[in-house]
Specification:
This protein has a single domain, classed as NAD(P)-binding Rossmann-like Domain (Rossmann fold), CATH 3.40.50. The protein contains 8 helices and 7 strands; from the N terminus they run H-E-H-E-H-E-H-E-H-E-H-E-H-H-E. Helix 2 crosses helix 8, helix 4 packs parallel to helix 5 and helix 5 packs parallel to helix 6. The chain is an alpha/beta fold.
Length: 249
Amino acid sequence: MSSADAAAKPVALVTGSTRGIGLAIVQRLAADGYRVALNHRADEIAAARALSRVRAAGTEACCIRADVSDPDAAAALVESVVERWGRLDALVNNVGPMIERSASKTTPAQWRAMMAGNVDSAVFVTSAALTALRENRGAVVNLGSLNVEHARGADDHAAYNAAKAALVVMTRSWARSEGEHGVRCNMVSPGIIDTGNLPPGTGDAMAERIPLGRLGRPDDVAEAVSWLLSDRAGYVSGAVLTVAGGLWV
């Protein structure tokens, strides 16, 4: 591959991408032909393992440590990717911590953690990335949660759902404001995805609630993200794509 060909190869940044859904997204985008930048906050062992897996498939990749809920760290992350490869074409805001708490039992610290991890992180990284994304008419995909576009109440995930609902507003706001620059912004909302962390013996009972009869896989989410970032979805912006096997429709 010539240096010109390498420079023309698109670049994707996926936050929180060393395991589970995030890593599946990275691997799918690598298969799509992207050079990929992984991101993690603290687990160096998981980061090294993930980067090795991606590079073993022949993909040009890097992994950058950054707490993207910090605006300076988020900006430095984007700057590092652009400095390394000279461009940024796709951004996936996958970071999204979750706690199981009712509204009445959520502490101020827990509330702030949910907002920082789910909303602030996406706002800070996207804001830092817009200049580079505009140059190549790039695209953003944010990771949501089941039915958050309808702002449903929750008895056990109140702060998390509130944060993801806020991210729907930001997703659609970016779609409106960045359209004139050719930048699209969409959301993928996963349902029950088996990332290997479900309590033992609960998978079958959960699958019985799902019309398609099975739990989701990280690859199911990754495929949706891949489509939204591609030219095949070139006229799709501001959409929330639910990947949940028909659950709660």
